[in-house]
Design goal:
Blueprint (H helix, E strand, L loop, with lengths): L7 H32 L5 E9 L8 E8 L4 E9 H4 L5 H16 L3 E6 L3 H9 L5 E4 L1 H7 L4 H11 L1
Parallel strand pairs: 1-4, 4-5
Antiparallel strand pairs: 1-2, 2-3
Protein name: Gustatory receptor
Keywords: Membrane, Transmembrane, Transmembrane helix
């Protein structure tokens, strides 16, 4: 038939040497442009973060934490953590959260509000270390943990805002 095929070794070689570096360089340029826009916002920004693991339960090997900017709806940063860096799989989300916040604060962004799930270590860190940033729990996780109508939660949030 005359079809050309690429061997598996060639495929992974091009992936490693061409594709991944191109994606990484694009992400760096994109992120730099977004962070310049966000740094120009004088009133500060509102961000939300959440973590994911590669598998359910307490046996995950990798964890990713993603920061989403609510002021300008874009993903502005993420961090990948391996279990052996954090000590255990439950500590991965907090460690990735710390990496993200350290990066954003070191860049000089004025973060006024942070929204997260009900992760106890993150809540404690926000209360004790990052005291100048207002911390809220997102409605979905709040509703999931309490057996009350969503309307009541929304009304309570509006009252406290």
């Amino acid at each position: 038939m005359g079809l050309g095929c690429v061997s598996i070794n060639t495929f992974f070689k091009y992936q490693r040497t061409k594709l991944f570096p191109s994606i990484y360089l694009y992400w760096q340029r994109y992120q730099a442009q977004v962070l310049v826009k966000l740094k120009a916002i004088q009133d500060g920004i509102i961000i939300a973060g959440d973590g994911r693991h590669d598998s359910m339960g307490h046996s995950a090997k990798f964890g990713a934490y993603t920061i989403f900017c609510c002021t300008v709806p874009m993903i502005i940063h993420f961090s990948l953590v391996q279990r052996n860096e954090a000590g255990n799989s439950t500590g991965m989300e907090f460690m990735a959260f710390q990496h993200c916040m350290d990066f954003l604060l070191a860049y000089g962004l004025l973060i006024t509000t942070f929204i997260s799930d009900r992760h106890s270590t993150i809540a404690s860190h926000m209360k004790n270390v990052l005291t100048n940033i207002v911390h809220y729990f997102d409605i979905w996780h709040l509703k999931k943990s309490k057996d009350i109508p969503v309307f009541t939660i929304i009304v309570d949030c509006i009252i406290f805002l």
